[in-house]
Amino acid sequence: LWRFGYSARLLKTNHFRTAASNTSFPAVWMLLAQYSGTIPARFVVVKKDKFFTMPETVPETDKTNVELYSPHPEVRGMTLLNRAAFKRTVVVPVLKVKKEVVNTLLKSLKHTVLQRPGLKRVVEDPEDEDGRLVILDPHKIPEFSLGESEQEVLKRLNVQPEVSKYNLELTYENFKSEEILRAVLPEGQEVTSGFSRVGHIAHLNLRDHQLPYRYLIGQVIIDKNPGITCVVNKTNIIDSTYRNFQMEVLAGESNLVTKVKENNIAYELDFSKVYWNPRLSTEHCRIVELLKPGDVLFDVFAGIGPFAIPAAKKKCRVFANDLNPESYSWLLHNCKLNKVDNKIKAFNMDGRDFLLGPVREELSKELPLLKEEQKTSFHIVMNLPALAIEFLDVFRHLLVGEPCSAAGLPTVHCYGFSKHDDPAKDIQERAEASLGTSLAGRCSTYLVRNVAPNKEMLCISFQIPADVLYKRPCP
């Protein structure tokens, strides 16, 4: 492996060690490939971004507790939240003990005692002021009868091995969000899709069968997720011009101006007017890690600055552009917020005009001055996956003159969606068609995330071939 130049730093990372420890050798090889970032030709690697989800199936640990922790069956079909209707009483086993042995007993019977967030495991004994009732898990105590190991523990602690019955009252507060929604929605239908958290906003993409319950779903999410004060549902596809979408406020305040933190950098935005996707934080970080201080970044579809601002903080020179006036305004705002407004030149232009104008002008000025020993790199990020590949034809003969050194040729990171069986091959072929040349052996393809069933988001990276970028003057 060391022959291929993989660094020791890779092998020291916790993520790699954890993954590799439970992985076969071929899979370890794939992990190395993911982290190297240097593999040529068509090669797909995967990283998953973190985002908030509501489970659609019962976790293994909860399957035995479905009956015990199901709300009152009369809530089925409820569309407006009535918290009082979720109240129910269940019978659970308890042990009567003196309060001075409670802590010891809890430690000794930790696998038998009720383990349920939000529920007390110990309550006062109404018949004995000095006594306590320790609630046991009814699924661990079949027929309210203790096993031999539990009886041995009680004998050592001088506790009577007699199990009593106790009426435990469960309320709306005691149920998890997925339990509430599973009890409300029609049986057999998925509870809800994952939701993204953007500051104080929870963003949902509800399915058609969930829409009648959308206001209830919104309120449950607010109740069960501290810090969320607004829940919205996307009501149409992303507008390809300004990359925003219509949304409906389901619950909470209608304030859609929010503040988020990504990779230790703060951003402010109006979620209803600009594009922001918390699932892309890993991808933003991946690209910025490729940059070195002194490099130049051209961000063609910059949004509010998730590539541009961390690059500027890394002491790169940044040219950032976005067609959406709202995105441009928030980009300027976030540059000032992060004290990099003097390091970023911002533009409010069409992406094609930005490439033909400021990008061409800067490259025409900078590339002829590059010397072999200089290590400045030029990167062009094109994160508009619905359309970016169609812009690649701009690079055909963008510059006039003799090519600079191969090392100085700009590197493009272009994003696209694919529904093809082989998405890496599809994205490469489409890029080649726009550029008018083959990229075989000269590009790498990175699988960013799964957007929808049979729809992937990918990033293809390549240095623009000299014969594409340059138009040589006539003799």
TrEMBL record:
Reactions this protein catalyses: guanosine(37) in tRNA + S-adenosyl-L-methionine = N(1)-methylguanosine(37) in tRNA + S-adenosyl-L-homocysteine + H(+)
Gene Ontology process terms (BP): mitochondrial tRNA methylation; tRNA N1-guanine methylation
Coiled-coil residues: none
Alphabetical keyword list: Cytoplasm, Methyltransferase, Mitochondrion, Nucleus, S-adenosyl-L-methionine, Transferase, tRNA processing
Superkingdom as given in the UniProt entry: Eukaryota
Listed Pfam families: TRM5-TYW2_MTfase, TYW2_N_2
Naturally occurring in which organism (per UniProt): Glareola pratincola
One Gene Ontology molecular-function label: tRNA (guanine(37)-N1)-methyltransferase activity
One GO CC term, this protein: mitochondrial matrix
Protein name: TRM5 methyltransferase
Similarity remark: Belongs to the class I-like SAM-binding methyltransferase superfamily. TRM5/TYW2 family.
Known function: Involved in mitochondrial tRNA methylation. Specifically methylates the N1 position of guanosine-37 in various tRNAs. Methylation is not dependent on the nature of the nucleoside 5' of the target nucleoside. This is the first step in the biosynthesis of wybutosine (yW), a modified base adjacent to the anticodon of tRNAs and required for accurate decoding.
Domain SAM-dependent methyltransferase TRM5/TYW2-type positions: 195-466
